[in-house]
Amino acid sequence: MQLVVARIGRAHGIKGEVTVEVRTDEPELRLAPGAVLATDPAGTGPLTIASGRVHSGRLLLRFEGVGDRTAAEALRNTLLIAEIDPEELPEGEDEYYDHQLIDLDVVTEDGTEVGRITEISHLPTQDLFIVERPDGTEVMIPFVEEIVTGIDLEEQRAVIAPPPGLIDDRAEIASSRDDAEDDPKGLSGDDAEGTPGDRS
User: Fold this and answer.
1) What gap in Å lies between CA 17 and CA 137, rounded to an integer?
2) Taking the model in full, what pTM does it have?
């Protein structure tokens, strides 16, 4: 099974190094010197990592046969792809490969259906679930423990506790219900705000 582990960024210096956007929780394993990686576009690879180092918080890689800035710049935006065993699991207890999460059903803690994970977006600050909702729209859910409270691979579902506003229709329903409870006389807008003491 193939797994995207990085995307090549701009060239760094004049000796063929490139910056990379890491897309794996195991860069020390997947992006180690000697690793041979397939590429997208396929014609760019395969690429063998000659060396790697961290500079100003970013990972820099150099590939065999890529010896100058021009050759390095030609690799920009290339995806690096590792071949892994489909049965292999990440080392961390709460870590998952993208292919394990794709197609999981997403539900709230009370069992409300949200949708299905169709993509994992790896941003510099956090990962996002791209979730397709039953009506065909998409919602982005940060993959952080405060929001994603459980992953059950056997049941093929991800359980979330979304904050207000993350899921639009959920926020609208909650807002309507709160308005009805807080405003039993049907007041709204400025009229409602001008009646302090009504809340119990």
Assistant:
1) 40
2) 0.51
CA angle, 41 then 46 then 51, to 5°: 115
Do residues 198 and 182 lie in contact, with contact meaning Cβ atoms separated by under 8 Å?
yes
| Bridge pairing between strands 36-40 and 47-55 | antiparallel
Conformational region of residue 58, where left means phi above 0, alpha means psi within -120 to 50, and beta covers everything else = beta
Residues 6+ apart with CB under 8 A from 158: 101, 104, 105, 106, 107, 117, 129, 148, 150, 151, 152
| Each residue's pLDDT tens digit, 47-94 | 999 999 988 888 899 999 999 999 999 999 999 998 876 555 555 556
What confidence tens digit (pLDDT) does each residue in 139-162 have?
Answer: 999 988 899 998 888 889 999 998
2 has which bridge partners?
Answer: 83
157 DSSP β-pair partners: 105, 152
